[in-house]
Amino acid sequence: MATRCILITGAGSGIGAGIATELAAAGHHLVVTDVNHESANAVAAGIRDAGGSAEALVLDVTSDDSVAAALAAVSRPVDVLVNNAGLQHVAPLEEFPIAKWDFLVQVMLVGVARLTRALLPGMRARGFGRIVNVGSIHSLVASPYKSAYVAAKHGLVGFSKVVALETADTDITINTLCPTYVKTPLVDRQIADQARTRGIPESQVVSDVMLKPMPKGVFIEYDELAGTTAFLMSHAARNITGHTLEIDGGWTVQ
C-alpha cells in the first residue's frame, strides 16, 4: 500500500490514539489532532520516538475557525480522514441537559460533516480519498440513557450513505466502523456512569450490560480497528463505500 497522510480527530487518547499508533507503525504519516494539544503532542511524540512519522495539531471539530486553522497548518495533503472525536453522557432523557445533548451531536455528527466538507475538495483534486467514521454498535442498536450518543452515531450511517453517492464519480470512499465496546478511558467512565444510573456494581455493568450481548464476550482492541481502517484505505476496498462494518463479536447477527 502507498504511504498515506492520515488525519485522525480525537486522537489524544483512546481509540484515536490506538489507531494512530498502529497505522504509524505500518509506515503512514499521522496527523494527530485533538481539542487538547498537550494530549495530541504526547501521542505524536510517542509515534516519532518509535520511529514513525507524526505531527500534532489542536482541532476543535465544532469550530469552523479551528478546522480552517488546523488544515492550514498541516504539513502535507490529507489522504485519509478518520472521524473519531467523541464523548459520552449517560442519563435518562428527562434528566439530560439539553446543552449537553446538543454538544454531543455537534461533536459526533455536525463536526464530522464540517471536517469532511473541508477536506473533500482536496481529495477530489488529487483523485483519491478515504473517509472512515468511527461509529459504534450504537450506530445500529440502542441502549437506554444514551439518547444523544445513539442519535449522533445513527446519524453517521445516513451521512456516510449520502456522501458515498456524492463521491461515487471519483476514487473516494466513506464508511462507518461499528465496534462494540473498546476498553478506553471513555468506556471506563461509562462503566462508572452506568453503575450509578442503574444502581448495580461496575463489574455487573461489564458482564451484564456491555459484554453479555456479544457472543464472543470480549472487548474490541485497537489493532482490530486499525486493521479494518487499513483495509478500507487499500485498492482492494475501492468499491466498498457507504457501508457499516460491524466489529461486534456477533451482537447484531442474533
UniProtKB/TrEMBL annotation:
EC number: 1.1.1.30
Record-linked SUPFAM superfamilies: NAD(P)-binding Rossmann-fold domains
Pfam families recorded: adh_short
InterPro entries, per database record: 3-OHbutyrate_DH, NAD(P)-bd_dom_sf, Sc_DH/Rdtase_CS, SDR, SDR_fam
Superkingdom assignment: Bacteria
Molecular functions per Gene Ontology: 3-hydroxybutyrate dehydrogenase activity
Keywords: Oxidoreductase
Family: Belongs to the short-chain dehydrogenases/reductases (SDR) family.
Protein name, as recorded: 3-hydroxybutyrate dehydrogenase
